[in-house]
Design goal:
The chain is built from 13 helices and 12 strands. The protein has 318 residues and is α+β, with helices and mostly antiparallel strands.
Length: 318
Amino acid sequence: MSINTSAKRLIDEHVLPSLGSLRIADCSPSGAGRILDFGCGVPGGIQAGLLLARICMADLADIRVVPADRGLWEGPMLQVTTDDPTRACMAAQYAGWKVSQGKFFAMGSGPMRAKRGREEVLEHLGVHDSGDCAVGVLECDQIPSEEILAMVALECGVGVEQVTLCVAPTRSLAGVIQVVARSIETAMHKLHELGFDLRQVVSAHGTAPIPPMAKDFAEGIGRTNDAILYGGQVTLWVDASDEQIETIGARVPSLASKDFGKPFAKTFREYEYDFYKVDPGLFAPAMITLVNLRTGHSFRYGRLCPEILRESFGCSAG
């Protein structure tokens, strides 16, 4: 099934019939596609966030809230499991589309990217979606205009009435959950950057703590990033040689970055709020385990940093 069709079916069956209870708003303009607000002008919530994350991954992953790892963080964790990690993460979830027009800007993710193409990772993997609709997730704090809908439709090669955009800021609860669901995606992208063939990744599991929401823009971005950089734990089952794993393994976790070691908000401010100044190697899980299906050997790299999480999350013990 087309990954856009899969995401749209999830919306049709589980979001639209329950907008009120999910605290999601339909902000669609008349006859011009669909816009769903998961957290800009509405409260949204945990269930909205779980659905948003599933939409972002084209419903190719099981995503759920699980009990806390008390040694890491006192709050609950987000768990993601998938048997189709390349399509779920790189064809859909990766935020590879900068959606901008005039003063509007949002990071675009979700399966609509596979309709548009024009990204190095999609071309490298030979990804293109044949569905007749486009479903995307926008990280921003404003509802996109009809012009944005039309632009997305044009770039994806579909009619505007076939576009669905799901919107949530990272400072909303749904937005937080959607971002923290990217533990596996960061590992997959890092492996791709290191030259590992992602088709060798058979299955994946990841967890990361759900941080408190922050009112400050930099703190909000910082907390969601820190959840993965210092608290993310990913296991990948791969069909590779031990030599392949040992060659790149230590370079995968965030620990390998020169910017590792302090809350992301501090790093972000030091670089004058310019993401492109941050070492790209930082965006990876704190710890990764690679399980080799050929040999039965497992390899673990990285380390968890609960002390940085507590500083980032503003946690004080009573």
